[in-house]
Amino acid sequence: MTRRPEREMVPMVFDGEMIDDETVVPQGQSVPRLTFPRWRAVAGVAGGRVRAVVRCPAVVHARSVAGYRVRQAPRDAVRLVWFLVRGVGRWGAKGWRWGSHADLRADARAARLAGDVQARRTAQETIRADARARWAKAGTVVRRTVVGAAVTTVVLVLLALGEMVAGREVMPGWLRAVYAVRDAIGHGVAGGWPWVWRSTVCALVCAAVWEGRDRTPGASWITRPDRDDDGSWVDERMISKALAHLGIAPLNAFLRGGGELVYTVPARRDGDGTHARIRLPLGVTADMVCDRRRVLAANLGRSSLETWPTTGEEDGVLDLWVADKGTLSGGAGDWPLLHEGTVDVFDGVPVGLSQRGVVVAPPLPESNWLIGGRPGQGKTNLLRVLLLGAALDPTCELWVFVMGESPDFEPLRPRLSRYRMGLDDTVAAGAVRALEDLCSEMERRGRILGEQPGRPPKVSRRLADKPALGLHPLILAVDECHELFQHPTYGRKAEEFAVRLIKRGRKYGITLMLATQSPTKDSIPKEITRNISCGAAFAVADHIANDGLLGSGKYRAGIRATELRMRTDRGTCVAVGITDATFELVRTFYVPFEDGADLVSPVIARAMAHMTDAKRTVVTTGGTRKEIDTTPADHLKDIYSIIGEEPRVRTQVILARLAAHNPREYEPWSLRDLRATLRSYGIRAYKSDGTMVLRAADVAEAISRRDLASDD
Ligand SMILES: Nc1ncnc2c1ncn2[C@@H]1O[C@H](COP(=O)(O)OP(=O)(O)OP(=O)(O)O)[C@@H](O)[C@H]1O
């Protein structure tokens, strides 16, 4: 076979066209006709463009949808005809029910079956009265129609006779106008009649199709292809269909009887999901739906973490939020303040992304926090992020107590006014002292506020900015706080001060933040869980821990951190009180401080630089840092000194004198604490005249024994 060289020249044709564009045709000469290769070039370019348009995604999509619609057209047509037939049938049934007083007859029948003579008689009388009223109404309509038709006929006949006898030219103007109106109406009726009956038929057909529509929840008018946005698409029909298959008897009966759910908020996009509010029918509460959350999630094609049915403003109102598929599995990303920025704690500290995908930044003043969850789920990180945010506000004063051996807050040390960490009693004592100081500070702030012009009710940014007033935001954070509240010596005092702070500190710019692994009623006092304003629950084991952190009744209302999975949902918490919403599902920002990665220290370095820029130093309300770090009290020496010259003193008196001598240290002490301390030094109290006494000589001997031992 021989090859044909001109076919091989096709690429060259494009070069030819480029040159052709710039060719100048001399005047007087005609434009040369396109030669065969040029014609092919133009055709090739045009064809390429058409192909590009045809292949563009929007056109491909439109074509596929159009193709689908065309293929489904016969099915759609049959479906609509079926609706029409069924609609006419439903009208017939309705007409029959109306005409035969079927509802009232059913009442009468029910009364007869129930043996209720009075009800039966009432129903029968109502049927008779109803029938009489209908006939009376029909008579009125017929009478009015006949009278109207007669009057119209007489007027028309008179007008026709008048025209025949006299002719319009001799008639007065007003009569001619009457004839003109008659003619216009006549022409209008003659011309419009074919349209009137056609449009009436169309309207009747549409109404019959509407009447006969498929009323099962989730049904659509025409058959639909699978949606490519099915990962995010949730509409009222889908929700109704999912609710119809929860196995809630009153809801099923309502939907089966043709009832339609009322959407007080129709399904609409809300961040990374869909929100809807539904008024449930009689006999159904939102709790019932919350209890079947897993089934609801399955019916909606979501995981249960992505499906949040909660009780709305009433028990019969369901608030439903459904996340787009997979959106909650990603982390929150970097903390927005990781590399730059300052904070105003009155505006808020960013802590994470809500289920809607928006940054949650709760203000810190006027709030108290309780953070809890199983071990290793991200409590400490959230507490640290809150404190880091506060550290970037140069007016903030921060106190941190860690009731365990954990270096989680070590990098924050330069920015902290008080910091103690460890398992020994001195840390618990320091924490109680801090709580007590905050209570005194609260009183002082109350007085200062009262002296300000206009007696402002609470600390504001403007007042906090005046260093002379000392009304700056003050935050006390206690990690593993259950250790403090369960401490045999300091627990009771800690509870008392903490409750006082939580109840009254709100107005004075004092914020308490508590984190715990163990939010049970024994580890966290009830008064605290009851009064805390912001609760954050990471994965918890049961509804007791859930309600301990988030408030009682939250589990029942569908706000459940029990749905969070250990490890998989690490860093995600259910939070209440941090925004106006009933709850938030927060994916917290993570600022690493582990395994050699330390992004906390650079933030603190920035915070210190901001303080320098703002000409502020790390202040300590209620004392200096030195005072706080003083070595713990020497119990033995204190006891010896308060015994004084007396040879023996009653233990009750010793306890009272110790409390007077150093209230912070000894006020929480009971007789049992005193006995335990004495026993640890080998001293025993004796009974004398029926009361327990302590001998001064025994204490002196214990002191010299201890001194000797320390010299050795
Ligand atoms: N928001 C987050 N994003 C990603 N990982 C996180 C997040 N928060 C915490 N983590 C991971 O979880 C680990 C445990 O975090 P963290 O120490 O804050 O938990 P915890 O609940 O305080 O634990 P524990 O109860 O033992 O003190 C961290 O080392 C980190 O790897």
From TrEMBL:
Domain (FtsK) ranges: 355-547
Keywords from the named record: ATP-binding, Membrane, Nucleotide-binding, Transmembrane, Transmembrane helix
InterPro entries: FtsK/SpoIIIE/SftA, FtsK_dom, P-loop_NTPase
Domain of life: Bacteria
Transmembrane regions: 141-162
Annotated binding of ATP, by residue: G373, R374, P375, G376, Q377, G378, K379, T380
Keyword ATP-binding: yes
One term of GO molecular function: ATP binding
Protein name: S-DNA-T family DNA segregation ATPase FtsK/SpoIIIE
